[in-house]
Amino acid sequence: MRGAAKENTSPPRTAPIKIARLPAPSNAASKPTIAPIPMPTRATRIVLIINLVMLMVAVSSGIVIFAHGSSVRSANEAVRTVAQAAADAGNFAAVEVAFLEAQPGLDEAVARLAGRGVRQILVVPYFLTLGIHLQRDLPGMVERIAQVHRNVKIRCTPPLDGHPALIQILLDRVGEGLLEWEKEHSKF
User: Each residue of 131-161: pLDDT tens digit?
Assistant: First the structure.
């Protein structure tokens, strides 16, 4: 083609890259200058403090799931499974299981948590109702353990009785039972 411009096949020219160089120290004893770090705003400091306090509370708090215990191993394992699921769901790092009539006992569970630096322990009774064990036995145990671990605060929650989720659990079980019953009768 006449008069057509020739196509440029060479790579485009770019400006040379300049690499910044730090000046060499005037003598070996001189120290490099460190730029000052800007102070965070008041709002940022408040957020940092709140997060730090939450972390300190989370690290220094622990939970003991306290159950009756059984000579049947699988019953105790079921409690451990529920406790682990609760720890995972609540993102609790310091959770122990203790039993009234199996091992480990409440004293051992508290000692484990205290040994990990926990200073506040919440004992959650894995009991349905407030029977003699929770009215008489548990308060006495907590009082004795508190005398051994004076730097640890121990509190107990109420038993599961009265929690609104129990009604739904009962309804679920009734529904499951009736469904099974219906399946059995439909076979005939």
Answer: 899 989 999 999 999 999 999 999 999 999 8
CA end-to-end distance (rounded Å), the chain: 94
CA distance 153 to 110: 10
123-134 residue pLDDT tens? 999 999 888 999
Q: Residue 111 and residue 127: Cα distance in Å, rounded? A: 22
**Fold of the CATH domain 48-157:** Rossmann fold (3.40.50)
Neighbouring C-alpha atoms within 13 Å toward the C-beta of 85: 6
Domain segments of the chain as ranges: 48-157, 163-188
